[in-house]
Amino acid sequence: MAANLPSDVRLLTVTFDPAAEVAAFGAAHRGLGGLCSFVGEVRSDDAVEALELSHYERMTLPAMAALADTALARFDLLGLLLVHRSGVMHPGEPIVLVAAAARHRRAAIEAVDFTMDHLKADSWFWKRELRGGRWSWIEPREQDHGDLARWA
Amino acid sequence: MATVTLVFLGKLADLAGVPEKTVAAPLDWAGLVSALPGPLGEVLQQDRTRVALNGELLADKTALAALAGDEVALLPPVSGG
Fold first, then answer.
1. Does A138 sit within 8 Å of B79, measured CB to CB?
2. pTM confidence score
């Protein structure tokens, strides 16, 4: 049954409006009980001029869909929304939106936390940033893998 | 000509200088290593670099067996969403 629950998973190469997406998601699950959402955006500190995420067409979106299915199976949800950017972004622009709707708050909150930890640690994205006119690749963070252990 | 397409992801695309490259089919691990000399080959052989065949991650990249028309992706460690 869990696998039949509605998930909306998208990989975008142009910017999006997280507030509008959350509003539409909430409207699609009216009477839901609880909705939790998280928006990650490009930080404007550290003199970062731009961030570029690249992905692999054949794996990135399928893995995101599989992650959504895992979250739906693990938590008691009514729906899950997962929107992720690829391409060049500037400070203040949204990178990722995860929203979960559930009858009770804890499932919604935990599903968003779980999905974000997995997106950060093992989704197929490669990131580089532009500082002072120079691009440099971002290496994996140990912290991201530590975060995953919370769900083992 | 029967070829295999190599796809370079993340910093591997910078090292390769191109996002993709075609090599003669069939292609096994030894063939892949010899097709990518220099820094690219060194990174390929690091444990943290994974290999996918037609979008399926290989549990053991040294067991690679790609045929004509296949796509082999070289995946450095992800840096997260």
1. yes
2. 0.91
